């Protein structure tokens, strides 16, 4: 087993999270067989238990109802939470609320924090993050953003069409990314707004039918914003600094997502190892056969590498850096490593891997999105490649050019 250099506080928090998972969350998950969605009551009970175990909203400042842990110290707890699709919901560290709370904490006015951050932390309200748009709007290339917000007196008027807003149906507030100045480059001309979902002109078109489990109750909405008016106090952060703010939200959110998914992959492997150790075929248990053993060893190695990459990027963020390339490397590597591990875990459970009696089928459906959300694989590889090809030293070619002349 590979161990990492997490602080004593981080390790103690993650151990409490592990206890909550073992004592409360996994037994509750096992009751919800057949892909059943968790009820409001169940989520409430799980959150009450998370408070009791001292692992509720660890990443949020105590002033807003959290526990005041540094991002780096909270990180290992996200992995524990990821061991069930209900874990992050219980600890109030599930996307998209977690990233939205982070953005509100960083840039919200005192009024916005009172009105939205504290109730979000308490799970009295929920939120969505509305950035992606149908073709030809903002997607992998967010500079293609079409949604606009124009100032009219002391109000902003928002017009646009979004889709894939996770939690869009049922959210009380939507953080909407819009172009506020078309005269400048999008990097200087976009802003984020807090839009109450019951504002006039917010029209939910549909919940997009998709691959994915129901247990965590996450839908993804297509939403039209037609002349939606919000008071100027609903601008989140600085006008024109939307890209910068979104980057501040996305960097850490990509890493917390990595940790939730490595927890999921690790649990999938644990279930598969238990099955393989019991199940016999052709005279031995499946765990006794070398090819399956090596496959498990390969995935354990890749997950350990993923955890190390995530910590490397998180250390840089905690030290005040942006860590763009380390975050891209961690994200693209973890998304593929966790997808492959979960696929193998499903395979070695035979038909039971497909059944929703075990959580692996839900994990399998859930993990596929991770190679697309928070930047598709190719978008991160593009950034890593751009960095890799910078500062080329032509002196490396001297031996060739010397003979070629
Ligand atoms: C389950 C789920 C939840 C989501 N939640 C949210 C949310 O809460 N809020 C939100 O705003 N959005 C959300 N999204 C949207 C998500 O962020 C986008 O789907 C993602 O950014 C890709 O954008 P796109 O779908 O427009 O793909 P496109 O931009 O159309 O890209 C299609 C594909 O082209 C390839 N590609 C793109 N650029 C390059 C390149 N430079 N080189 C090579 N290949 C490339 C990639 O394979 C990419 O997947 C969610 C999506 C999913 C599936």
Query: Order of helices and strands, N to C?
Result: HHHHHHEEEEEEEEHEEHHHHHH
Order of adjacent strands in the largest pleated sheet? 1-4-5-8
Number of H/I helices: 13
What is the CA-atom radius of gyration, in angstroms?
Answer: 22 Å
CATH class category label of the largest domain: Mainly Alpha
Strand content: 5-15%
Mean pLDDT: 96
Helix content: 40-55%
Which regions contain 5 or more consecutive residues with pLDDT less than 50?
none
Structural class: alpha+beta
Which ligands, by name, code or SMILES, are bound? flavin-adenine dinucleotide
Count of individual domains: 3
Sheet with most strands: 4 strands, mixed
List descriptors.
Butyryl-CoA Dehydrogenase, subunit A, domain 3; 10 strands; 4-stranded antiparallel sheet; alpha+beta; Butyryl-CoA Dehydrogenase, subunit A, domain 2; 4-stranded mixed sheet
Structural topology:
Layout: H1 8-31, H2 40-52, H3 71-81, H4 87-91, H5 97-107, H6 110-121, E1 127-130, E2 148-152, E3 155-166, E4 173-179, E5 190-196, E6 202-207, E7 220-231, E8 235-236, H7 242-278, E9 280-281, E10 284-285, H8 290-318, H9 324-348, H10 351-354, H11 360-367, H12 377-388, H13 398-404
Parallel strand pairs: 1-4
Antiparallel strand pairs: 2-3, 3-7, 4-5, 5-8, 6-7, 9-10
Helix pairs in contact: 1-2, 1-3, 3-7, 5-6, 5-7, 7-8, 7-9, 8-9, 9-11, 9-12
The structure holds flavin-adenine dinucleotide.
């Amino acid at each position: 087993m590979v161990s990492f250099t997490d602080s004593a506080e981080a390790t103690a928090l993650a151990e409490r999270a592990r206890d909550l998972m073992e004592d409360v969350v996994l037994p509750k998950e096992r009751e919800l067989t057949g892909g059943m969605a968790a009820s409001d009551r169940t989520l409430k009970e799980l959150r009450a238990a998370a408070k009791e175990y001292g692992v509720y909203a660890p990443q949020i400042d105590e002033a807003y109802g959290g526990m005041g842990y540094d991002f780096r110290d909270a990180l290992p707890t996200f992995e524990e939470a990821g061991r069930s699709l209900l874990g992050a919901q219980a600890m109030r560290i599930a996307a998209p609320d977690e990233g939205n709370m982070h953005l509100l904490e960083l840039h919200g006015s005192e009024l916005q924090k009172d009105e939205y951050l504290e109730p979000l932390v308490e799970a009295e309200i929920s939120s969505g993050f509305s950035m992606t748009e149908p073709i030809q709007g903002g997607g992998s290339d967010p500079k293609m953003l079409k949604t606009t917000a124009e100032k009219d007196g002391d109000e902003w008027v928002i017009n646009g069409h979004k889709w894939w807003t996770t939690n869009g149906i049922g959210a009380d507030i939507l953080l909407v990314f819009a172009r506020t100045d078309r005269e400048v480059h999008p990097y200087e001309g976009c802003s984020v707004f807090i839009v109450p979902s019951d504002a006039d002109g917010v029209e939910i078109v549909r919940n997009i039918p998709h691959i994915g489990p129901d247990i965590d109750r996450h839908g993804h909405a297509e939403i039209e914003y037609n002349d939606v008016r919000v008071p100027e106090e609903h601008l989140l952060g600085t006008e024109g600094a939307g890209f910068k703010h979104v980057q501040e939200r996305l960097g850490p959110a990509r890493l917390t997502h990595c940790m939730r998914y490595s927890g999921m992959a690790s649990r999938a492997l644990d279930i598969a190892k238990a099955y393989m150790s019991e199940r016999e075929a052709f005279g031995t248990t499946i765990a006794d056969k070398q090819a399956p053993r090596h496959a498990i060893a390969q995935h354990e190695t890749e997950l350990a590498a993923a955890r190390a990459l995530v910590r490397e990027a998180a250390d840089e963020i905690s030290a005040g850096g942006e860590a763009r390339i380390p975050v891209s490397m961690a994200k693209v590597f973890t998304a593929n490593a966790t997808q492959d591990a979960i696929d193998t875990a499903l395979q070695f459970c035979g038909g039971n891997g497909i059944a929703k009696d075990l959580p692996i089928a839900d994990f399998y459906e859930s993990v596929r999105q991770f190679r697309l959300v928070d930047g598709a694989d190719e978008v991160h590889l593009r950034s890593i490649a751009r960095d890799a090809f910078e500062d080329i030293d032509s002196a490396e070619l001297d031996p060739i050019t010397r003979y070629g002349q």
